[in-house]
Amino acid sequence: MAQAFRKMIGTSSIFNFEHKKKALLPKHLFLQRMFWNALFATFILAICLGMGVLGYHYWGPMGWLDALHNASMILSGMGPVIEIKTDIGKLFSSFYALFSGVAFITNIGILIAPMAHRFFHKLHLEE
């Protein structure tokens, strides 16, 4: 299936988009592209969440469940839940919050990219 997808769009990767001079991707291949982008974004979020959990657990220091809760809240942009008392924990929390903002925005871009590309591709299709 991946070979047919690559042949259809004429690229070597499912994350590359077809050129504006090529035909619009069929709906089933577009949905497959959406699925792979969502899976890739989920993988990135899982890695970022894992980094946060480990950091909060060891440098927070807090239990695993509290570390998961705090990392999830920071990663989603809601803010910290548990007060951190150690200096290294506060440093980690500061850098993790900055990192989480960038990671969250990047994931939104990964999820929206196929839809935005399809929209603009439709606008620029040559008759």
Describe the fold and architecture.
The protein has 127 residues and is mainly alpha-helical. It has helices at residues 2-9, 27-59, 64-75, 87-123. The longest helix has 37 residues, at 87-123. The two termini are 29 Å apart. Residues 8-12 have low confidence and may be disordered.
List keywords for this structure.
single chain; 127 residues; mainly alpha; Helix Hairpins; 4 helices; elongated
Based on secondary structure, the structural category is mainly alpha
Distance from N terminus to C terminus (CA atoms, Å) equals 29 Å
3D shape? elongated
The share of residues in extended strands comes to under 5%
Short précis:
By secondary structure, the protein is mainly α. It has helices spanning 2-9, 27-59, 64-75, 87-123.
Strand and helix map with partners:
Blueprint: H1 2-9, H2 27-59, H3 64-75, H4 87-123
